[in-house]
Structure formats: structure tokens, C-alpha cells
Amino acid sequence: MEDISIPNFDPVSILVYGDVMLDRYWYGDTSRISPEAPVPVVNIQTHDNKAGGAANVALNIEAIGGQSLLMGVIGDDPESHLLKEALEATRIETHLRCLPGYRTTTKLRIVGQNQQLIRLDFEQLPFAIDEELLQDYEEKLQHVQVVILSDYAKGTLLNPLPFIARARKRGLPVLVDPKHVDFRLYRGATVITPNLKEFEQAVGHCHSEAEMVEKARELIHSCELGALLITRGKDGMLLIQAHEPPLAISATAREVYDVTGAGDTVIGLLGACLATGMSLSEAAKVANLAAGLVVGKLGAATVTVPELKRALLQAHDHHSGLLTQAQLLEVVSTAKAHGEKIVMTNGCFDILHAGHIQYLEQAKALGDYLIVAVNDDDSVRRLKGPLRPLNTLEDRLYTVASLRAVDAVIPFSEDTPAALVEAILPDYLVKGGDYRVEEIAGSATVIAAGGQVIILDFKPGCSTSGLLERIVERHSVGELS
Question: What is the torsional sign of CA 335, 339, 340, 343?
Fold first, then answer.
């Protein structure tokens, strides 16, 4: 990852054409099994409607600051109105063709205890694309830099060749997320992004990566493609270009929570990066980074530029979250520009206990990005005495950075983090204990900048000094050897 950076996506303009659909989520609790059948009973409590399919590709482009122009087909039904409502809250420029008698593709997911229990699909057989829609598509090409064709086999890309040919005639890169088994239908595309299953459906089972590369090169030649980017789940991605060595990109090590929409993120980020002038290999690495983030979220999700920059910094350093001040200020600046709220706190964190963890989780709940400033060893000795700290700065930084609630950790050498607070200017400056606001280092600066200073209670009975006293007491009576 050391050879890439996250570009500015603001000038990006991409046409996304394909199968738009409505993603519906019904959330509830499951506490019993139905007496009618061995299935869980879900007590539905909330629901959510999201734009899915090709629309989710457009949402991924919008989430990083780019502009997307979305084209597709919907029906004149209640689901289409819900889809339009979901898109109205975005900056996406929509050109959705309403076909009388057509049923808007809808996927209904029932979710209980944050686990998808079942998915119900409502859809219609494929339909023929008329010349009027193609002409509308061709007119929109003059306003974009890249074209993405999002094929979910719902009909809008039953014959993708005319869409590819018209875009290529204008010199535009065309990226395709395929569903057809016959890749000849994507002849002339710049990049095709099948997952491994889709690729093997087209070429047969591959027993090795070398065989995969060989069959991919045959496809590239026979179908006049620029490249294939094969997504392989936990094995990352494999990029095969016509005249370049194959590039295997390792997956980022993250817990997979939900793979829904991960392909949309990959092709959306790939197209956006190409629109900024990135090479295909660089763009593929950023798309891989984004995929590693989005599978850690529930449902068809998106990623943001601040998330990408943090993940890139973490990929540079195996101590995830340990940043230099320059790195941290860059991340903070980007996060603020995208409307994220910054939370900051500080402390020695010499012996981490449950009180610290509860306090940090409460702090993180106030905003989007939690920064923890940690006193270095000399600073701790000046504050706590010559016998402290018990743990070195490196160990304390690593321990705090490992906590789920913490996004970034940075050391400071002064007695207070006032200078660091002034440089970061968090939206929320947080401290735990019985402080008064005016006693907290940097509080005046934060308040003057429009931020808030918040004092949280520690968990009763949890303190480092109390823990040390109990250790000494038990050691003195022989309970500890």
C-alpha cells in the first residue's frame, strides 16, 4: 500500500447504468421459535429503505465526494416511489425510466440481532431495451469521464454491447460488473470485475492462480478486453491486464460482517480512481482497501474518504491507530471536511481497566472519530512520581490502540496536551472524573472554536491508584507471591 494515496474525488463524474433496485430492511428481535415450523419468530420494530443494485454503485461514488449520474428502469408501483424517496436525499443525478407494467426489483431482508435471517426477492423477467433509452444514454455520455455498467441480470443489460460500444466510441473507459456467463457479451469493455464464482462459471474451474491467469488472458484476447479484476474474498483480488504482469492484491485483514454490496463498492471505487487519473493497478489497490472496510458493515454500505485514509495509514503500520501528529492532522482535516465529528481525550493509561474501557466507549459514542492522547514516560513520572509508569509508553500506546472504541492514539511529552488540543480542535474534548471544565487543558480553546467540553463519570470502584493499593495490600499479607 506504500505506493498509493487517496486522491481528491470531487472532480469525478461517472455514469452508472444498470439494474437499480430497492433494498428493504426489516429489523426486529428474535426470542422464540415458531410453534408452526422450526423457524425464528421476528418481532419487527423498525425498517429502512435503501437504493440498491446499480444505485448502490452510485451511492459509493457519492460517499467519497464524486458525482454520479444514474440511469436505469423502474416500474410505476409503490416500491418505485420508495426508491425515489431514498435517492432524493442524495446528490445523485437520476434518470430512471418508468415502464408501465414493469415491477421495480425489490429485495426484502429480515434482520434479527444484527443477523440477516432471510431475503425475499420481488422481480420480473428481463425486458427489451428500446432505441429511445439508448439515445438518452448516449446523450449523457458527454457529461462524464467513466462509465460503469452494473449488471444484476434483471434486464437492463440483457444486451450490454450497444452500451459499451457507444461509450468506447467516445473514448470513455467502461467498467462492467458482470452477470452473464458468456463474457463475449462484454466485448470491448475496459475492465470486467467478476468474483471468482462468476469467473469460473465463464471459463471453468481453475486449479491454481497460474491457470486463472492463463484463462483470464485468453478471455482478454478473445473478448478484446483491457483487463479483468477478479475478486476472491479472503484471498483478495487478482488483476490481469493485457500487457502487464498479473497483480495479486492481498485482502485487508478485517472481520467479515456482511458481504452485501461489496462488489458495488469495488467497481464504484475503481471507476472513481480511474477518473482521477490513477493507473489501473493503483485504482485496484484502493478498491481492495474499500472492500475490506465495507464488508465490516451491515447491509449494502459505503465508505468515506476519511475511512480510506485511516485504513491506508493503518496498512502502513502494524500498530493500527498509532499515528504521527502530521498523519493525524491530515486525517482530522479530511474527516472534518466530510462532516465527521472528532472526539478527543487524554490520560496516562498505565494499567488499563474496565473503567477506562467504559469511559472510552462513552467518549466514542459522542462522535465519529476518537483520538486518545497518551502521556509519555517522563510526563507520567512528573505527574505520578518516580515509580510510574509501570508500563512503557510503547506498551501503553499499543494497548489503547487495540481497543474497539479508539480510532487513533498519539503520545505527548508535555505535562498537558493543550498544544495538541489546539492543533486538532476537536468537536468534543472529553475528560473523566470530578474535573471542572475550566480545569481541563485546552478547554478554553475548544469552546472558543465552537466545540464542547464534556466530563464523564468513571465506573465506580475502578481506578489505577485503587488497583495498585489493593495489589500492595494483598502482597503485604502474603496473598500475592
Answer: positive
